[in-house]
Write a structure and sequence with these properties.
- With about 110 residues, the chain is mainly alpha-helical.
- The chain folds into 2 domains: about 1-65, no CATH class; about 75-105.
- It has helices at about 1-25, 35-45, 45-60, 60-65, 80-105.
- α1 (about 1-25) runs antiparallel to α2 and α2 runs antiparallel to α3 (about 45-60).
- The termini are far apart.
- The model has no long low-confidence stretch (mean pLDDT about 85).
Amino acid sequence: MSRFLVAAIVLLTAITLYGVFDCLTRDRQHIRIMPKWAWALVILLVPIVGVLLWYLFGRSSFESRERPAAGRGPVAPDDDPEFLRKLADDLAADRRRDRRQREQSEEEPPEAGA
């Protein structure tokens, strides 16, 4: 019986901590109904029900958090197709230049020792 009790306490603590950290690290615009600090208090003071309320009513849907709206703010370089295309072009140009230099050095006759 004590093993079950310890396991239940550990599970309850883990779920509560996960809910609190999820609440505190989420952007303000992705939180509904109450401010961030109020949700954290609800999760901590009403352990099981608070976490359920947070996941049902407090946070906005996961999909809207992961998909940024088009046209908002700057695009990260690794998400910008034009930047990636420029990198690929620069890499190809460097390889062509290196190949040309190798071919020229192979074609040049050895210099006569003076």
